[in-house]
Design a protein that fits this description.
mainly alpha, 0% strand, 13 helices, 289 residues, MetI-like fold, 78% helix
Length: 289
């Protein structure tokens, strides 16, 4: 009899974990929808409202839709085309330098041994944990004559995100069989040719991941751009939005501010949606293996 009575308890104990495993994905999706969907809907809904309805942003639907006029005014009054060009002139060279320098340094760290190389690698990836000292950076750029210039902004972004690139690429290169490089050396290939013909093609998943991550961070940055560029004709999109809003051009015009935010985010949102699989595969390849 005692054995028969134990069966319901066992069934309940088994049913509990099974039920939790089924509900857990739904709970995660619900929390993600609340954390991301509510702010996103607030921005989208407000960007389509007239000024009278958008004075106090809320989640209600617009009584009168006017997204076309709002986005046109945001482009025209916010000088968005000029800010878009400035952002490209800063972000694209930064990404290129991060990839080239990161891939070269990662190859050395992955293939060379010794305490000196290990110490250099530890110092390089320390940028993942240590935040940049803004005041020191600005003073150094002034000493070099790069403050308020695009090359100074490119140098800052390159230094900030190089550690991330080196970290992922080093982990990935260590999984590449060394025999591939040894066979190329036997055939007479020099290090530069080995790097260009063997290492870089195999690094494509991590390169895609590093490219998208750096672009997302640098495209939306306003903090460092404010201290280095300071505005003016070289202002990027986020910095341009900040300056326009603080100049009271959009005083209480939340519909135009949110329209600017949506338009500014569209290029990076499209890039992320297209390449999200590469992001996941590159992160797991470089950090887990």
């Amino acid at each position: 009899m005692s054995g028969v009575r134990a069966h319901p308890n066992r069934a309940t104990a088994v049913r509990g974990p099974v039920l939790w495993r089924r509900l857990r994905p739904a709970l995660v999706v619900l929390l993600a929808a609340l954390a991301v969907g509510v702010p996103l809907w607030l921005v989208l809904a407000t960007s389509a409202k007239p000024q009278g309805e958008a004075v106090r942003p809320n989640l209600t639907l617009p009584h009168r839709w006017q997204p076309g006029r709002n986005y046109h005014d945001a482009f025209d009054q916010g000088h968005m085309v000029h800010g878009f060009v400035n952002s490209l002139l800063v972000v694209l060279p930064s990404v290129l330098l991060v990839l080239v320098l990161g891939a070269g340094a990662a190859w050395v760290f992955a293939r060379r041994g010794g305490r000196l190389v290990a110490a250099a690698y530890a110092v390089t990836i320390s940028g993942l944990l240590l935040p940049p000292a803004v005041i020191t950076i600005v003073l150094e750029l002034r000493q070099l004559g790069l403050a308020g210039t695009r090359p100074g902004m490119v140098a800052l972004y390159t230094g900030m995100y190089l550690s991330t690139s080196v970290f992922f690429m080093t982990g990935f290169i260590r999984t590449i069989p060394l025999e591939l490089e040894e066979a190329a050396r036997i055939d007479g290939a020099r290090p530069l040719r080995i790097f260009l013909t063997i290492i870089l093609p195999l690094l494509r998943p991590v390169i895609a991941t590093a490219t998208i991550m750096v672009m997302l961070y640098a495209w939306s940055d306003i903090f460092y751009a404010f201290f280095v560029l300071g505005g003016g004709s070289r202002a990027t999109l986020p910095l341009n939005l900040y300056q326009v809003a603080t100049a009271q051009l959009y005083l209480n015009n939340w519909h135009l501010i949110f329209a600017y935010v949506v338009a500014m985010s569209l290029p990076m949102a499209a890039v992320f949606l297209v390449a999200q699989r590469r992001i996941v595969s590159g992160i797991t390849s470089g950090a887990v293996k």
